[in-house]
Structures are given as C-alpha cells and as structure tokens.
Amino acid sequence: MTSAIAADPAALRVLFLTHAFPRWSGDAAGSFLLRFARALRQVGIEVSVVAPHAADLPTRDSIDGIEVIHFRYAPTSLETLAYTGTMAEQVSGSWSARLSLGSMLGAGFWRVLREQRRLAPHLVHAHWWFPSGVVAAATSRLSQVPFVTTMHGSDVRLARSTTGAATGLAWVMRASRATMTVSKWLADEAHAMTPDLPAPRVSPMPAATELFTPSGTRAPDRLLFVGRLNAQKGIELLLRALAAMRARPHLDVVGDGPDVESLRGLASSLGIADRVTWRGALPQTALPDLYRRAAALVVPSRDEGLGLVAVEAQLCETPVIAFDSGGLRDIVQHGVTGILVDVFTADALARATDELLASPDRAASLGAAGRRAALAMFSPDAVARSYDAIYRAALEPARSK
Predict the structure, then answer these.
(1) How far apart are CA 38 and CA 32, in angstroms?
(2) pLDDT (tens digit, 9 = 90+) per residue, 104-139?
(3) Which structural domain, as residue segments, surrounds residue 201?
(4) Is there a single domain that holds both residue 40 and residue 68?
(5) Residue ranges of the alpha helices (H) in 70-152?
C-alpha cells in the first residue's frame, strides 16, 4: 500500500503514534500532544492518534475533536505500561511487564497497519523513538507510508543508558523522513550516538499559552516544584537547599512518584516538614494559580529533555531557577529570562534562591522577560506552522515517485 495524496494536496492527514496521550479532556498524560494536534488542525492538518489501551478506556474515542484509537495489547490488569511515566521502571523489574512490552510492540504494529488502510494518512508522526518510532519504522517498510519521529527526552536517555538501544535509535532515525528533538541538548545527545546521520532538528512542542497567563499577587516567601518525585528531577537537592537557605520560604510540591515516602522522611529529618506542602499530582488547570502565587519555580533536575514546567511558569511571569543542564538551557537565558545554577549542589541552589528572593524587582524583570521569550518560541500557532513545513518537506520524496 502506498500513501494516498488527497485531491487537495494542501490538506494533510497525519497519524500520531504515541504511548502517552490524554485519556480524557484535562488529563495530564501527554497533554502537550493534544495541544499540538489541536494546533495542527487550525492550520488545516487532520490528525488521528493511535495509542495503547489502559483500564476504563474505550477502544475508540474523540477528545476535543481529535480521533483516538486505543489498541489492546494484554489483559486489562497488565495494560499498565502507558500514560503513567513508569514504563522503564516496570520493564526493568518485571518479566510480565517485559512480555507486555513485546505484546505492545506487536499489537501496535498490526493496529497501525489497519488504521493506515482505513485513514490513508499521508504521514505517520511517531512520538518518542521507542516504542512508537520502532513500530512506525516496521510498518513503514510494509505500507510505504513515510514517517517522522520526535524525541522528547526519556527515549534519548534510554538510548544512552541501555545496552544496544543506540543501535535501535540509529535504525529508527535512518528510516525516518525527518527526526526532531524538543531541545538542542537532546539533538546533541542523539547526534553523539548516531554521528554518521544528520543531527535532528530542534522543534519544541507547544505550551498552553491560553491557560498560563500572569495574574494576581505573588507570595514573596513561597517556592514551587512541579514534576515527578524521582532522582532525575532532583527534588532531594531542593529539600536540602530549602534547609540551607537564610530565608525560610514555604515550598509547594506538585507531583507524585516512587520517592514520595523517602522524600517526606527527608523533609522531616531536615526539620523543614512544616514548610513543605505535598500536593500530589494535579490537573493542568490547577497549576496556573500555583505558578502565579509562587515567588519562583525551582527546577533542580539534571539532563531534562526540555522542561515544559519552566515554560508554563514563564508564561505566568514566574521567575525560574534551574540547574544549568539539558534542555533547560533552551528555555532559561541566565540573568535575562531566569537563573541557571552551574554548580550542582544544594548549597549553590540555596544561594541562588536566597539572592532572588531578596531582589523582588529583579525577579519581576526576569518573569516579564521569560514570558516574552516563551510566547515567541512555544505558542501553538508557531509550533504548528513549523511542523507543517517539516511534514511537507518530508513528503516531497513520496510525491516525486
């Protein structure tokens, strides 16, 4: 089967393949992909989505007008690999999860072929090179429907840390008509593992510019953390920094994860338990008020693929303090749109945070500049038009055949 070109060559049909997409309107899982699909629709690109099934999900759905197909890959009790951000942990610690992953790859392969016949997309867009890029590369060999791949961060870390995974990354990149990453750091990391291939293009995902806006009055003594509670996100260092600060701010922690109990214990042992509020995972609609109230968002993670929470904070004119690492360098320009800390210790983070809290005028200036920069780079319209050009360029070889 070859990809059909519509009678109107300007109207593109794109099939997203992903393991993370909102399960319902307002769900946080892969919310940026739903925003991206809606933005593409505004520039005349029709999007459907193929994603794994999970408990209580229909096999076919429509979310904000975007068609979503959920494919079954295991008994319901074992369909737990997608949407929660725990796929790597599950697969590394369980043989049943490894079998489920193999079944997910196989079931995804056959379902994508089926939906290609039904929808006749011009292009498949795989989000994350693994597992979606692997499935897209395999189906493309049979169907001849071209595909492009965007890497979002965890998949690049997987290729770097797992034996043999870099070979799979190279295979997917070689088969893709175009490869993208959401930050320059990720592009550099991927290119270092595949030096004989062209470097991926940097093309970020859109932020919710309509939701994250400045408003209200900030609490001068309140900090905010938003993210998974695990080692990579660095919240342990943030708790230690909170204990070391001269000021005594309160910290709101939004998120959940495997380290929540040990982190609560650490806060108690450091004597700061009364200055930390553990809010758990919250829907995206609950975040703007927290950003607007915070004196600063602190992002203490290392090797962050991009760091959309930093973008969301900037859109609310909230100053961002982050470690000088990974994709956060694309978002935060030190001293202009936020603060980058280049020594990865709790004491260095404490000093930078103390200095910012002591300078509210500087904090306000950083917040205003951050919003201007975020709007220029992460607005849905700008991202959609960038990808429209990428898609059309990727289709040129198909049209010339």
Answers:
(1) 10
(2) 999 999 999 999 999 999 999 999 999 999 999 999
(3) 12-206+380-400
(4) yes
(5) 87-93, 95-119, 134-143
